[in-house]
Predict the structure of AzlD domain-containing protein.
Amino acid sequence: MSDLEIWIVIGALVLATATARSSLWLIGHHINIPKRVQDLLRYAPACALAAIIGPDLVLSPAGQVVLDLSNIKLLSGIAATLYYLLRRNMLETIIFGMACFTALRVWIG
């Protein structure tokens, strides 16, 4: 791929991103979004977060799925999930999950 092609692709991506993001800002208040769609959009951040965190918990650096006891990220995630189900406190869950991950990393390696 030549330098010119790379710059054309970058320019097209900038244009596509600016168009997509500004369109809702410019005409968003003229569009009536149905109540059901608004309710579904409330779950979008949680779904995006799960899509980011999920692969990090189960994939090794080589891209293999690791579901055994050697995967300390998965063990820490399970422990943090259980802690959240008991306490229902997000900050404590983050601290507990990181403490579990650190302890397992020091203990197991």
About this structure: The helical segments are 3-27, 35-41, 44-58, 72-87, 90-107. Residues 3-27 form the longest helix (25 residues). The chain has five helices and no strands.
